[in-house]
Amino acid sequence: MQQQDIIFKLSSLANRFPRGLELSKQDLLFVGWLYFRELATEAARISDRELRQQLSHAAAQLGMEDDVSQPAQVIDRLVRFRMVRTSVTDSRAQEYCLTRLGRSLARDLLEDADFGSEDLCTLLNQAHSSLRQEMTQGDHAELAKWLTHFFHGTIREKIEYKLLSIEEGLLDQEQTAKRLGSGQDEQAFEEALAAERKGREYLDELLDAVQDGSAYMPLMAALSECHDRFSQPKLRTAIGRALDFLEGMRHRIERMLAKLIRFVRQCVSYKSLSPSGTHPSYRNPHLHGWLRLTRGGRLAQIGTCLMPLDSLRRLRS
Q1: Residues 196 and 288 both lie in one domain
Q2: Which domain holds residue 288?
Q3: CB within 8 A of 191, min separation 6: which ones?
Q4: Domain assignment of residue 6, yes or no
Q5: What is the largest CA-CA distance in the chain?
Q6: What is the mean pLDDT of the chain?
Q7: What's the predicted TM-score (pTM) here?
Q8: N or C: lower Cβ tally within 10 Å for the chain?
Q9: Smallest Cα–Cα separation from 216: which of 145, 149, 126, 140?
Q10: Does one domain contain both 159 and 221?
């Protein structure tokens, strides 16, 4: 596409939405609700009466009663933002339906919300098993498609989303623990411990993804085997990108683990959680569980399960 055409299309976009989308969280939830209703009923059209009922039901279920006290205003807003449009019918009854924009926006946002839900082990297992199937066929063109569309287009993006969500979640738990962990309030103390337990979940997932027995090393080995087997330059470049990504992923996980270990140890220290040593939760079993964790057990695996990065590079040589 020529640059002039691009400028024209983007100018048309700006003219169509001069004030942007201006959608609130409540608007997105209502559009998502109507999208699920459309999937369930397989009916695109909805009468004015049913639309009002659906909006009221959605508000009650999602705790947004105050946002739908005037259903007509909500409908007007969704129409104005081009999420919903009036539908042409043979009868005089007023009917509505989701616009293509509203339907696509709801679908894509819901998929995006689910994108980081799979754990890292599952994603690596999917990549390894599907790669082995492609290797069995031995078709370099199909392997190139697999790398482009499945690995780089799906698996890689999902892993990056997942790591980002863990990093954001860890930061949130750190802030929670720092804000509440040193307080003398029982409820605040328990919330801090809950933040620590969430940190343990992150720790488990990261370790499980790269330790012995996971699909990480077999996937690296399979990609290296493909790199040696096929001679097509573009294919070898795509395989090299996949190997670089997985090696970079391991670097990133190692940094996250180091940060996570420091966080856990700070949280379970008696001084950070109960400076006076007299807090009523001082003898809380969760606290002692965390102390045992830092002295051995799961954290002790980190030094042995993370293969030196030099070993990864030897797979490439």
Answers
A1: yes
A2: 120-316
A3: 176, 180
A4: no
A5: 76
A6: 78
A7: 0.59
A8: C
A9: 126
A10: yes
**In this predicted structure, what is the pLDDT of residue 115?**
57
**What is the mean pLDDT of the segment spanning 33-43?**
92
Q: How far apart are the C-alpha atoms of 155 and 214, rounded to whole Å?
A: 16
Residues 180 and 233 in one domain: yes
Same domain, 38 and 144: no
21: helix, strand or coil: coil
Q: Measured between alpha carbons, how far is residue 222 from residues 149, 228, 316 in Å?
A: 18, 10, 11
Tens of pLDDT, residues 222-237: 999 999 999 899 999 9
- Asked, for residue 277, whether it belongs to a domain, the answer is yes
Tell me which residue of 32, 30, 34 sits closest to 44, measured CA to CA.
34
Burial of 13 (0-12, 13-18, 19+ CB in 10 A): exposed
What token pair was written down for 303? 């030094």
For 215, residues 6+ apart whose C-beta sits below 8 A from its C-beta are: 121, 124, 125, 127, 128, 129
Give the count of domains, the chain: 2
Q: Is residue 265, in this structure, part of any structural domain at all?
A: yes
Q: Which CATH number covers residue 106?
A: 1.10.10.10
